[in-house]
Amino acid sequence: MRVLLMGNPNVGKSAIFSRLTGSHVVVSNYAGTTVEYTRGFLQLEERELEVIDVPGTYDLEPTNRAETVASEMIAGGELIINVVDASHLERSLHLTLQLLLTGKPVVVALNMWDEAQKAGITIDTARLEQLLGVPVVPTCALTGDGMVVLKSRLQEARSSSLVSENGASLWQKAVDIGQKVQRAPERASTFRDNLDHTTVHPVLGPVFALFVLLLSFGFVAYFGNFLHEMLEWVFELLWLPVAAWVSGLMGGAGMLHDILIGTLIAGEIHFEESFGLLTTGLYIPLAVVLPYIFSFYLVLSILEDIGYLPRLGVVVDALMQRLGIHGLSIVPMMLGIGCNVPGVMAGRMLETRKERFIVGTLIAIAVPCMAQQAMVIGLLGQAGLSGLAIVYGTLFVLWMAMGAIMNHFLKGESPEMLIDLPPYRMPYWESLWKKIYMRMNGFIRSALPYVLLGVFIVNLFYTLGVIGYISQVFAPVITGLFGLPGEAGGALIVGFLRKDVAVGMLAPLGMELNQLIVASVVLMVYFPCIATFVVLFKELGLRDLLKLTVIMILVVIITGGGLHLLLQATGF
Amino acid sequence: MYKSLIELDLKEEAEVIAFNGSSLMNRRLEGMGIRQGKKILRISSQYIRGPVIISVDGHQAAMGRGMATKLIVKPAERNGV
């Protein structure tokens, strides 16, 4: 049997889904976290139910992409769990009535029951059950309250005897039912309201946003570095003796030694530069990238669960409109800073092809993922902040300029933003940690094999002399245009696979700071890793991907060459 | 006196009269609780053509300025007027 979880956006469908099925899905405090449906299974006594987490919708007649998915799903559902926000009963009921009129068996989950109670709202569930003619269960999906009752009452789901009405009368009915079952006090101004007003205030809002962003990135950089140093220490203390023992066993040289341990630097293993599978291959993902990924997802997940991101979207909307996308596009951008793959996928929340193309292109070209940033911070940070400032400054200028240019030349619509601002909430730590864990787990599982493969290929290339060949072929561009040593060409090839490994390859080349800056920018801007490329293909289609690729090649040549000349001219 | 949401003063309360836009947008607004007869309060707006933020039914919504010019409202009568 197929069960559909349906309701307005941001009422907790995904949280209920996660509770019912035990599958892990990302839950956040803003609308549109689920754009495609997610499927899971629920064992109920002898039967196995297929549960589908349907994207949020206000109306069964679709008004946007997520709602189109929702209304298409409904035909295939045999039972509907209608998730209702107990603190916003009236407007939730409008959808409930529409669902009842489909004639499908329905159970109503009055979710966010705790929040409604805190706001002093009381709902007579028995009376509501009577008026709707289907079971009504109060739930709080984040804590799990009411989930047992919800499961046990699924059998009682039945079609309602409500007769068909539509338009205004359906709204009137929702209002009537709301008034009959709900007592809500006059709302007094609270601290939360004041915070609400401050964060979207025309002057204080942007100031607050800047403060939050600086604080967030400062935290990621410093806490990431702190964790990195700790893990580096662990590596030196525990792993170095093991690796040195293996190296000794193999006599310190030979092809197998080169692949597993890499090149000894002054007779010793160097985790950053040796480039063996057991040395650099483990050190890069676990000791360099992982600490920054963790710090980033910690901050991002807290901002998500508090409910700040949509407000950040409001504040940056005026700026982003100049780039042909509305303020909520900040969400895919922020996700893209962690990893481009989920960032590009989140672009689905945007309505038009133009918007999705702009977001995909901006992420692929001007939003470097955290794995890459961690390596670049390590590479450039040693020489002070100036190098990093130039790299990030260049990316920001690119982001703005390319967005504005694309907005000007691309045909198509850029709709305005229309969005519910979710109430600020304290993060619920259990689900917060689960989300961070899922994201970390996703990183380790998807990145580690590719990093190892990347390191292996690097060694293979060196052994077979491929790097030398590539260096020769691309010398006019790499040396002539970008002013980099020919070996950097190898990094550009490996960058297809993993950008962090590619940046790692730059370390042993002994480049000057200005060369490191150009190389970092070129690596960040040119082709995203293969995983991002595949997702871009899926989301944008072949034609737009080709268009994106042409833009990217032009941008990398102009930016890399221009930056090289500029740094040379200014004697940096 | 009717005016559009964009002309409504900050912290001014009003009643929604109509939306002069596509029926699609109208349904979306309705779903968010912004429909005829509802009391709304303009909370804030952003500079350089940023969105307008309103409060309706105890929650907040942000909409672009184009939409806000199409939303026709009737300001509540002030005390003593």
Number of strands of chain A: 9
Helix content of chain B: 10-25%
What is the CA-based Rg of chain A, rounded? 27 Å
Helix-strand makeup class of chain B = alpha+beta
Low-confidence stretches of chain B: none
Count the E strands of chain B.
6
Strand line-up of the largest beta sheet of chain B: 1-6-2-3-4-5
Question: If you average the pLDDT of chain A, what whole number results?
Answer: 88
Roughly what percent helix of chain A?
55-70%
Task: Describe the sheet with the most strands of chain B.
Answer: 6 strands, antiparallel
Principal-axis shape of chain B = globular
Distance between the termini of chain B: 13 Å
Largest sheet: number of strands, sense, barrel closure of chain A: 6 strands, mixed
Number of helices of chain B: 2
Largest interface, chains and sizes: A-B, 40 and 31 residues
What overall form of chain A do the CA principal axes indicate? Answer: elongated
Q: How confident is the prediction overall: mean pLDDT of chain B?
A: 86
Q: H/E series of chain B, N to C?
A: EEHEEEHE
Strand order of the largest sheet of chain A: 2-3-1-4-5-7
Cα end-to-end separation of chain A: 67 Å
Can you describe this structure?
The complex is a heterodimer of chains A (572) and B (81). Chain A is an alpha/beta fold and 572 residues long. Helices cover 62% and strands 8% of the residues of chain A. Chain A has helices at residues 13-21, 65-73, 89-101, 113-118, 125-132, 147-152, 168-181, 191-199, 204-249, 255-260, 280-306, 309-321, 330-338, 340-346, 353-366, 370-381, 385-409, 429-464, 466-481, 488-494, 499-506, 513-525, 530-569, and strands at 2-7, 38-44, 47-53, 79-85, 106-111, 122-123, 136-138, 182-183, 418-421. In chain A, strand 4, helix 3 (89-101) and strand 5 (106-111) form a beta-alpha-beta unit. In chain A, helix 3 (89-101) crosses helix 7, helix 15 packs antiparallel against helix 17 (385-409) and helix 16 (370-381) packs antiparallel against helix 22 (513-525). The mean pLDDT of chain A is 88. Chain B has two helices and six strands. Chain B is of the alpha+beta class. In chain B, strand 3 and strand 4 form a beta hairpin. The interface between A and B is large, with 40 and 31 residues. Strand 9 (418-421) of chain A pairs antiparallel with strand 5 of chain B, so a sheet runs across the interface.
